[in-house]
Specification:
This protein is an alpha/beta fold and 474 residues long. It has 15 helices and 22 strands. The protein has a 7-stranded mixed sheet with strand order 15-16-17-14-13-19-20, sandwiched between helices. The longest helix is centred in the N-terminal third of the chain and has 20 residues, at 41-60. 51% of the residues are buried. The structure holds nicotinamide-adenine-dinucleotide (NAD).
């Protein structure tokens, strides 16, 4: 670990040309962890130029070679998984077990993408003209700007960087200013593994400065963003003006439905994990729990009991975030919500909020429609399946959803009709793996899917090659 987190440009760690630094504090206790480069537009321009200079030669490498380098990086990360996860613990305040699990998930993503080096399949298709063969082949997009959230820092890097570079692009990453350390560590590993200079670049800094400059840079061909819907909207408008390709993975207000035939113990267990793990800082967090009237009271008392026993919720990422969440809870209270559990900052250092459960909240109240990104969930009482489905779909977001039922018929109907990119039956509102596409509908995204081979569609463009052979000329 170092005291100063520099950017990684053209294969070297460099200080910001601005001469400015940001303080990164530990969420667990508020102490100073390190200083972080506060890059400006000139730093972003240097990064994009370095990327452009490297991209053509990188794309000349075969997919097999690029896959091998991705594998090297993933394996090196696996070798140093304890060290990597310790850094994640420091910069996020998560438990060591959670951080290690996330590090392993990042490694798995690399290994999955590396395997594409021996596949990278295209298609051939028939044609109306005799002798004409048509092949669809993948082409790199060029220089890609990757902007990510803080919540699962290493998987967030892995989900974008591995497929981006595998596809033959040069990637410029702007990590969250809240979690710069894991991206800095990832850059070290890429350097050690001999990734050519400029193929992977990290520019640290604020979203409104370094992030915005990357989005606005005329030589960035693709912006791939994971973060809030508000920022995503601005990015789409700004990069859209120059018709750049834009992939957005955005927020959620995900619902978990508990039917009257649910296994209540299982439903309580998954509700706790979905609502409160990672301090609710998951795009797929269950922030709405919709319970059938006949089991509401029983579920409610078990859920409150289980939430009170949780001991590894962890802090939220910053004081600002904690104040924002507490403010939203206070406004909900003023509008008639009842706080049945939590709702208070925990005593002691750091930014800890007790797992919070609300009820008596209208489906159209502000807090029902706004993602909080904290350990806060709302209980809703419904008469039955139709009302539950309508409530779940009555949301600006559509990322994930879950239903707890023993009925195949209810499960299938829910899976068919719920407006979400991911549906889970009898589990949590999350559960993506490296080989599974992930993304949402409505304000949760713009239709792209990350992870899985679907990610290759983000980081490459299809080219249709027509070959016309004349048998008379054989
Ligand atoms: P955020 O939008 O505040 O920031 C995300 C990133 O964008 C950060 O790196 C930030 O510095 C940068 N940024 C901010 N303003 C910018 C601008 N004007 N131009 C360019 N970059 C800018 O979000 P956050 O608080 O870091 O993350 C939480 C959000 O991320 C939640 O909404 C969550 O649901 C979402 N998220 C979505 C997914 C998904 O896959 N759909 C996964 C994780 C997180």
């Amino acid at each position: 670990m170092t005291d100063e987190i520099e950017s990684f440009v053209g294969g070297r760690f460099v200080p910001p040309s601005t001469g400015s630094w940001l303080d990164k504090l530990r969420p667990a206790d508020g102490s100073l962890l390190c200083r972080v480069a506060r890059s400006g537009a000139a730093d972003v321009d240097a990064a994009v130029r370095a990327a452009r200079a490297a991209q053509t030669a990188w794309a000349e490498r075969t997919a097999v070679e690029r896959g091998e380098l991705v594998r090297e990086i993933a394996l090196r990360l696996r070798e140093r998984r304890q060290e990597a996860s310790q850094l994640v613990v420091e910069e996020t305040g998560k438990s060591p077990a959670t951080a290690l699990g996330e590090t392993d998930a990042a490694v798995e993503m690399g290994l999955f993408v590396a395997g594409e080096g021996r596949r990278n399949y295209g298609r051939t298709t028939t044609a109306s003209m005799p002798g004409r063969t048509v092949m669809a082949v993948r082409q790199p997009v060029g220089v890609v700007g990757l902007i990510i959230s803080f919540n699962t820092p290493l998987p967030n890097v892995a989900w974008k960087v591995f497929p981006a570079i595998f596809c033959g692009n040069a990637a410029v990453l702007k990590p969250s200013e809240e979690t710069p350390v894991s991206a800095w560590f990832f850059a070290q590993i890429a350097q050690e593994c001999g990734l050519p200079a400029g193929v992977f670049t990290v520019v640290h800094g604020l979203g409104s400065e370094a992030g915005a400059a990357l989005v606005e840079h005329p030589d960035v061909d693709l912006v791939s963003f994971t973060g809030s819907s508000a920022t995503g909207r601005w990015i789409n408008e700004t990069a859209g003006r120059r018709l750049a390709k834009v992939c957005l993975e955005l927020g959620g207000k995900n619902a978990l439905v508990v039917c009257d035939d649910a296994d209540l113990e299982n439903a309580v267990c998954w509700s706790c994990a979905s609502a409160f793990s990672n301090a609710g800082q998951r795009c797929a967090a269950a922030s709405r729990i919709v319970v059938f009237d006949s089991v509401y009271d029983e579920f409610r008392s078990r859920f409150i009991g289980a939430a009170a026993k949780l001991d590894d919720v962890g802090p939220v990422v910053s004081e600002l975030s904690l104040d924002r969440i507490l403010g939203a809870i206070e406004r909900a209270r003023e509008q008639g919500a009842t706080v049945v559990s939590g709702g208070e900052r925990l005593p002691g250092p750091g930014w800890h909020l007790a797992p919070t459960i609300l009820e008596n909240v209208a489906p159209d109240a502000d807090i029902s429609c706004t993602e909080l990104f904290g350990p806060v969930t709302i209980l809703y009482r419904v008469s039955g399946f139709a009302e539950a489905l309508a409530l779940v779909n009555d949301s600006p977001y559509g990322l994930t959803a879950a239903i707890h039922t023993q009925s195949l018929h209810r499960a299938m109907r829910f899976a068919d009709k719920v407006q979400a990119g991911v549906v889970v039956v009898n589990g949590g509102t999350h559960g993506s793996e490296p080989h599974m596409g992930f993304g949402g509908v409505k304000q949760s995204g713009t239709g792209w899917r990350e992870a899985g081979t679907e990610a290759l569609d983000v980081y490459s463009d299809w080219k249709y090659v027509n070959l016309i052979a004349d048998p008379a000329k054989v």
